[in-house]
Amino acid sequence: MLDNLISLVREQAGDAIINNPTVPNERNEEVIAETGQSIAGGLQQVIASGGLKDVLKLFGGQEAPSNNNPVVQNLSGNVIQQLMNKFGFDQQAASGIAGKLVPDVFQQLVNKTNDPADNSFDIQGIFNQLSGGKSQNINIQGLLGKVTQGGLDKDGDGDTDLQDVATMFSGGGQGGHVPDTVKGLFSR
Fold this sequence. Notes:
Layout: H1 2-12, H2 14-18, H3 28-48, H4 52-59, H5 70-87, H6 91-114, H7 123-130, H8 140-148, H9 162-169, H10 178-185
Helix pairs in contact: 1-3, 1-6, 3-4, 3-5, 4-8, 5-6, 9-10
């Protein structure tokens, strides 16, 4: 998954990295790789901090991966921080790279994940990779279907959150510590 994600970044890297005078040409590949790794790490952080539903909404096409989307903003923030730390870019340069790349890369990731003719990404594989294989027994495609159909508010509180996932796993009961377990699947 990570190699394919880095390839997506490379495909979109034109003006943001390759033709960007701020990025030395000899460092283009390093910046591309770090951007891909930062997007993956950012996704992992968003999910671990309770953003599973928001990520699934993006993959389900219910929200656009624009710079105004909170998930994309988190991913961009992670990319910005890593580029500043690793390459010494100033805030403006790192923000310019992230702002041009992250929404486009995430849109391509969503498109490829949802394209039955493209097997470079699948939702289950992405989540298995992000969780280090810990989510292999969770039907991510089923969760995605429930999000896109609005059927995840299992506890009837008007929102869809990790407590709803806990209720699903516990057979309709209170779920106990399951939200922490689900969050723990994606913790580093």
